[in-house]
Specification:
By secondary structure, this protein is α/β, with parallel strands linked by helices. The chain has six helices and seven strands; from the N terminus they run E-H-E-H-E-H-E-H-E-H-E-E-H.
């Protein structure tokens, strides 16, 4: 069994002072949302054992803030910055997941960007939570998290429609669930 967690970066400023898209930082809402999704992960193990993070500032900030919110409850994962996650399409992301077989974590998290992350999430969801699959089909919003389980022994066996969507959650869905 393998678990894949796809986390889209949180809400960002419109423009970076440098003018470079990779340098865009989280805005206030993004920082709050990253902390909220991190706290949710902390309350809902199992935790990722390997986290692959885009080198874009917003993705790294999302991970760092989420980790800060969960670290007292979670086991410390291995974390790697991966420039190739920035702007990655579905095939590049799927290749990244399959290449995880080299270190073989049981639970892998990618922190990246749309449209690739959303497209991968929709493509992997072969079965599982029907309401979550419906909501995920519409969008993987900022700070959205899709969690898939695969009945496989090796990451190289991850394939389209082979995942079971266990959970799809976002700050907005958390707010709706709590009645705020």
């Amino acid at each position: 069994m393998r678990r894949l967690m796809l986390l889209r970066h949180a809400k960002t400023e419109n423009d970076a002072p440098s003018g470079r898209d990779q340098d865009r930082r989280l805005d206030n809402r993004g920082r709050l949302d990253a902390a909220e999704i991190g706290a949710w992960i902390g309350r809902n193990p199992p935790f990722p054992s390997l986290v692959l993070v885009s080198h874009a500032v917003r993705a790294l900030q999302t991970w760092e803030i989420a980790w800060e919110a969960m670290k007292e409850l979670a086991t410390v994962p291995q974390v790697e910055l991966m420039p190739e996650l920035y702007g990655a399409d579905i095939s590049q992301l799927l290749e990244t997941v399959r290449n995880a077989s080299a270190v073989d974590p049981k639970r892998l998290m990618l922190v990246g960007h749309n449209p690739g992350m959303h497209e991968l999430a929709v493509a992997l969801a072969g079965h599982g939570d029907p309401a979550g699959r419906g909501a995920l089909a519409e969008n993987l919003p900022t700070a959205g998290l899709a969690i898939f389980d695969f009945d496989i022994d090796d990451w190289t066996d991850v394939g389209i429609r082979r995942g079971r969507l266990e959970t799809f959650i976002s700050p907005k869905l958390l707010k709706q669930a709590s009645g705020d």
